[in-house]
Amino acid sequence: xxxxxxxxxxxxxxxxxxxxxxxxxxxxxxxxxxxxxxxxxxxxxxxxxxxxxxxxxxxxxxxxxxxxxxxxxxxxxxxxxxxxxxxxxxxxxxxxxxxxxxxxxxxxxxxxxxxxxxxxxxxxxxxxxxxxxxxxxxxxxxxxxxxxxxxxxxxxxxxxxxxxxxxxxxxxxxxxxxxxxxxxxxxxxxxxxxxxxxxxxxxxxxxxxxxxxxxxxxxxxxxxxxxxxxxxxxxxxxxxxxxxxxxxxxxxxxxxxxxxxxxxxxxxxxxxxxxxxxxxxxxxxxxxxxxxxxxxxxxxxxxxxxxxxxxxxxxxxxxxxxxxxxxxxxxxxxxxxxxxxxxxxxxxxxxxxxxxxxxxxxxxxxxxxxxxxxxxxxxxxxxxxxxxxxxxxxxxxxxxxxxxxxxxxxxxxxxxxxxxxxxxxxxxxxxxxxxxxxxxxxxxxxxxxxxxxxxxxxxxxxxxxxxxxxxxxxxxxxxxxxxxxxxxxxxxxxxxxxxxxxxxxxxxxxxxxxxxxxxxxxxxxxxxxxxxxxxxxxxxxxxxxxxxxxxxxxxxxxxxxxxxxxxxxxxxxxxxxxxxxxxxxxxxxxxxxxxxxxx
Length: 599
Hints:
- It is built from 22 helices and 18 strands.
- The strands form four sheets. Strands 3-4-5-6-10-11 form a six-stranded antiparallel beta sheet. Strands 2-1-8-7-9 form a five-stranded antiparallel beta sheet, covered by helices on one side. It has a five-stranded parallel beta sheet with strand order 14-13-12-15-16, sandwiched between helices.
- The chain is an alpha+beta fold.
């Protein structure tokens, strides 16, 4: 844990509490505390003995806090000078979370801030509602009114140049990174030249992260991303590699056989674990560690993978996270949104979506399938919307007018498919999926078990390269109409480069799996009975949720769980709603009611 206070008074003697910083730089013009690790020191002409804090100070002197955006790694930087002080997070927030109060106190633990304040913080109903509907927190708020959470790639700061802020306001927040939403379009891009450069940067990223390690671990899913990591790793490293894979018991779409094939091909010591649903009992421990009621389909996969590694830990573990999103996802969804928007069909889709929002249609039948797909087209920019619908939220809450605001999407850029694809890649893929979901859960679960997990695809040089990559080499299709029918190749450049290097069984298979079958965690009737008792006994019904509506949801779930078959996405969404509800109530009992939870 780290903690401190943002203040321009006595900045020369400003100190930090908690964990010792990795390095400290102190001079007559700037004082910098550096926590975490850097991967791209080789990008700067600095002596090996120069500390990370000193490097950060030189960047601050040349370009202010914006200079920190040139650093790549997993870190938190706290800086003080005569004119400005602040706390900054790395590009994707893989280091510790940072929370801040209106008076400038900040910490990697909001509980510590609460203790220091001397009074109980109050829940923000809008944050709680966001968890029920999305499983994650979006925007700039938090679960508590007195606290703000610093987003990845951002800073909280005070500066003399800013207008005076009243004592009740929070420090200023802004992003250290700038993003261009102008797409790169080339009629005939040189795919071989781009492929060669991509391979060089990917190998460089892995080399930066493994350093002089003699024992490297890698997470294997059986797909292109983890397989390409392993192929690139083996091209530069001939030492010991331990690979780790997670499957689901009884799941016909398991990718464990593909992971074993990759292990055999590249010579790793392979370890695997099959989830059977009993792992749901670990949720209280996870939420207790996170301090937040976070839910996402892959949370338990990350938890089990990090637990599988055990005590004999590799020096560094490579994860394949983020590659999909850096290239851009939902090519078909973007094409459908673009075409329906250009044809003026969005008002009709919104009307149809509204008419089909009545709970009587939420059965998994044909109409609910139509609504599911219409919802995905209309709300393309919001990321996955698994969780309780707008209608369900207004039924669940005691005072929906106060405690719920329906999410809104940014205006779509329909100038071209390429413009919309680039906008979606930033608004949804980067800001929501990478920063708030996949890297958050992966890095926090690694921290929970003391594992050094790193993400080669998130390398800053690789990121800048992909920002300048033509859209046609990210998502390749003959026409927007064909893309809308699913005839497109995602991550085209990555597949072009690594297809010759991976087993044919990997490169020729259709994409399968990738989705944790969430009903698995609620298939045991005895376990559901315990969870139902726990949920209905919570103190959250005093002034937030309606107990009768929650009880009906749980009863309906019991009835549907006893039935076989049905549409996958209906069952998946219902299980995620259950997971969101369970996580929120677990958090409430732990941190509001102050009860130790065990299922």
